[in-house]
Amino acid sequence: MSDSRTELDERLVAALKTEPRATVLSLAETTGFPRAVVATRLKELQESGDVRVVGATHPMLSGARLIAAVSIAVTGPVMPVIEFLKTIEEAVYVSTVSGPFEIVMELRVADQDELLQVLEEVRAAPEINRIETLTYGRVIKGYLSQNELAEISLDVKDRQLIGALGEDGRKSWQELADIVSLSPSAVRTRVNRLLESNAMRIVVMERGGRYGRVISTTAFLTLNADGDAILAKISEDDAVEFAITAFGKCDAVLVIRSRSQASLFEALERIRSMPEVTKVETRTQLQQFKEVFSRIL
């Protein structure tokens, strides 16, 4: 990829992260590239899946107070298991990974009882020979809202808007209006209400691929000090996309995005150099098959 293309992508993604629903004209002014160039490039990035702009709902909105990561070891081909896991409603994320497990899945559930029920369903699959469960704690950085959810009641049209923005957070006001049979101004009011209450956030996700590979690595940290304070410091690193406290085999989980093995190594070295971090175990995400951030009950 040429230097100018790389520079455009970096500026465009940065501008989107600042204002995910910015108009193409506004993005052109922010990036300094011509409007037509920005429009074409943005369409390419979205259609390829390299960049996604989506609506992510607050976990409390669905009553899903518990988030767990489940590592799955498989006997035989992985794809049949992937197809099975994708059908599990509580599964919001399914990906193949490197390491001792072939698959990782994230679940959003109401409580421990529901978690145990889903895990029993997973264990019952004959191709699955072992699972390991890690429960998430407080989100320090990531797509899931870290802010308090304001009291809000949702009707059918609100839920339709959440679903539509969960697929594409840059749908125009007119496109959204057509979905819910309201005027664009009424839709804007409803969406702003959802955003102001923290019921939903519009987030930007880089996934790499044809237009510039992004290496996605999960890091499991063992700490010797307060997790919140250490993760807040680690989260200042631009390479860290997701940081959360955890209960189980480790004290915290990070997702690190990098464009090269060298930059990934440098990011891990910065984390390892912190005296509060006593152990770092990594696992590379290979291919994602399900990613849903707008699930509500």
TrEMBL record:
Organism classification: Bacteria, Bacillati, Actinomycetota, Actinomycetes, Micrococcales
Q: What is the recorded name of this protein?
A: AsnC family transcriptional regulator
Q: Which residues form the HTH asnC-type domain?
A: 154-194
Source organism of this protein record: Gulosibacter chungangensis
**Gene Ontology terms, MF aspect:** sequence-specific DNA binding
Which GO annotations describe the biological process of this protein?
A: response to amino acid
Instruction: Using the record's annotation, list all stretches that form the Transcription regulator AsnC/Lrp ligand binding domain.
Output: 80-134
One annotated Gene Ontology cellular component of this protein: cytosol
Check the record and name the InterPro entries matching this protein: AsnC-type_HTH_dom, Dimeric_a/b-barrel, Tscrpt_reg_AsnC-like, Tscrpt_reg_AsnC/Lrp_C, WH-like_DNA-bd_sf, WH_DNA-bd_sf
Record keywords, A-Z = DNA-binding, Transcription, Transcription regulation
